[in-house]
Structure formats: C-alpha cells, structure tokens
Design goal:
The complex is a heterodimer of chains A (about 120) and B (about 110). Chain A is mostly beta strands. Chain A has strands at about 5, 10, 20-25, 35-40, 45-50, 60, 70-75, 80-85, 90-100, 105-110, 110-115. Chain B is mainly beta and about 110 residues long. The N and C termini of chain B lie far apart (about 35 Å).
C-alpha cells in the first residue's frame, strides 16, 4: 500500500525557517517524480515544487522561488521541503504528492499545516 | 501561466441526478488535464487524467471529455459520497495549475 506521511509543520514567525519531510513507503520511491502542493485555509490548491526521480532536476512556483528548496533522499525514501524567509501568505496545509505521468498526482499524503504568524 | 477557469462555482443537485462540470484553459493544453475530488478534511483524489482516462479504482459514473481549451467532468448519477469539491489541473506547462474548484452540494 502506497503511503506518504508528511511531518514538520508548525507555527513559525515571519522570516523564519522550517523543513518539511515526507516519508514514502509501498512503492519504489526512487522511480517517481515527487511534488509539494499547498492549500491555504479555505482556499484552492497550488503547486509549489517538483523534483525528478534522481533529484537532478527541480522546479518551483514563482511565489516560492529563491526561498524554498525541494530535495530527496532515495536511500531513506524521503522527500523534503526546506522553507526559508517564510511569509504570512505561506500559511497552508502542505501535501506531499507522488507524480503520475510525471505531473499529475495519484497519491497524496494527509498534509501538514504550516502557520506563519507572530 | 496557464489559467484554468471552472464553472459553475457551485452546483446544487440531488442524489441520482447528473452533474456536468466545466473547466476552460486560457490556452490550448491538448489533453493534458486531470480532475480531482476533495472532501472536507481530506487530501485530493485523482479521478481522471489526460482528459478522459479514469484513474485506478474510480467508478464508471465518472467520465471526462474535451481537448484544447474546453473540458468536462460528468458524474452520471450522483451518489451521496460524490458531494465534494472538484478541481481541474493542467500538466501542459510549468507551473502546473489548478482551477478554483466547483463545489457539488446537496440540493
């Protein structure tokens, strides 16, 4: 059974940093593109970042470029999102998503809440 | 960035009725469109990919059609568990984008 379990969400002050993790199991993690998608409270879905299967290629939404870094450790079956210089508008549930046909999401984690506030 | 527009914003229907949801892209995306269902407090679930292909385990009452800029998700006969928010998503160009969603609620 495919499982994606996010962790690391927390309350953080503006300009602070946070690292999210996503532990994957039930599939060959190193064969899949992986993504982070976020959803602000009561709002729609926004694609944040993606990384290819070996970690050599990454992409970011303009809103997070230069502040967020996606990475993966295929030996540990874990996806990461390092978030720096956090802003109030980064407040959201962050979902870890397995890529299907690379750029669709067929399995989603339960999400982890990041709140940026004083 | 490719903008996706969904209509209507809310669709009020009764169980057993047919639901027709629309998604329009700001430029041609060929057939590179997916549909997701999201229920309150849950992660989205992939229903349809490449405009018309049902994802694994998705019931046959869900169907998708369209290409280019205009797409439709049809639920042939609404079941109680189908009342949710539906999002379309394009994978034609980065950044990947979602539509704002259509809420299907009980009339």
């Amino acid at each position: 059974e495919v499982q994606l379990v996010e962790s690391g969400g927390a309350l953080v002050q503006p300009e602070g940093s946070l690292r999210l993790s996503c532990a994957a199991s039930g599939f060959t993690f190193s064969s899949y593109w992986m993504h982070w998608v976020r959803q602000a409270p009561g709002k729609g879905l926004v694609w944040v970042s993606r990384i290819n299967s070996d970690g050599s290629s990454t992409s970011y939404a303009d809103s997070v470029k230069g502040r967020f870094t996606i990475s993966r450790d295929n030996a540990k079956n874990t996806l990461y999102l390092q978030m720096n210089s956090l802003r109030a508008e980064d407040t959201a549930v962050y979902y870890c998503v397995r890529g299907f046909s690379i750029n669709y999401g067929d399995y989603w984690g339960q999400g982890t809440l990041v709140t940026v506030s004083t | 960035e490719i903008v996706l527009t969904q209509s209507p914003a809310t669709l009020s229907l009764s169980p057993g009725e047919r639901a027709t949801l629309s998604c329009r892209a700001s430029q041609s995306i060929s057939s590179y469109l997916a549909w997701y269902q999201q229920k309150p407090g849950q992660a989205p679930r992939l229903l349809i990919y490449d405009a018309s292909n049902r994802a694994t385990g998705i019931p046959a009452r869900f169907s998708g059609s369209g290409s280019g800029t205009d797409f439709t998700l049809t639920i042939s006969s609404l079941e109680p568990e189908d009342f949710a928010v539906y999002y379309c998503q394009q994978r034609s160009k980065w950044p990947l984008t979602f539509g704002p969603g259509t809420k299907v609620d009980i009339k």
